[in-house]
Task: inverse folding
């Protein structure tokens, strides 16, 4: 893959994380960003709950055109609400879930997930719609 040079503004928390990813000496900004992206993918893959194809479609539908909050913790905590609302108001989501009992069971499962599991599902749902850049 070709290297792309971009100019970005890094907030203090990001700078601290990148500093911690550099083993010694001066911060290697591009190397640390690449390391952070690789580690993020590992965290996402390790924290993604097992879902059926229909369940994935529920999350894809819920995040189709949706602009998530910049507050990731709040967004994760609202995941079960999005599925509940989707079941009530989105015909596609109702079709993918099936019965009301299945909807309640999925919502309860989502509520039982850790924040990192919820964020992993949100990331994958948003990524579904981004297409374009391949791994």
Result:
């Amino acid at each position: 893959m070709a290297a792309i040079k971009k100019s970005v503004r890094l907030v203090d928390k990001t700078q601290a994380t990148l500093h911690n990813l550099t083993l010694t000496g001066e911060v290697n900004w591009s190397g640390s960003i690449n390391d952070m992206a690789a580690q993020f993918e590992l965290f996402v893959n390790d924290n993604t709950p097992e879902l059926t194809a229909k369940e994935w479609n529920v999350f894809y539908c819920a995040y189709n055109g949706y602009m998530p909050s910049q507050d990731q913790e709040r967004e994760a905590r609202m995941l079960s609400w999005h599925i509940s609302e989707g079941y009530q108001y989105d015909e596609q989501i109702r079709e993918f879930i099936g019965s009301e009992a299945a909807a309640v069971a999925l919502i309860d499962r989502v509520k039982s997930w850790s924040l990192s599991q919820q964020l992993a599902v949100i990331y994958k749902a948003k990524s579904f719609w981004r297409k374009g850049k391949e791994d």
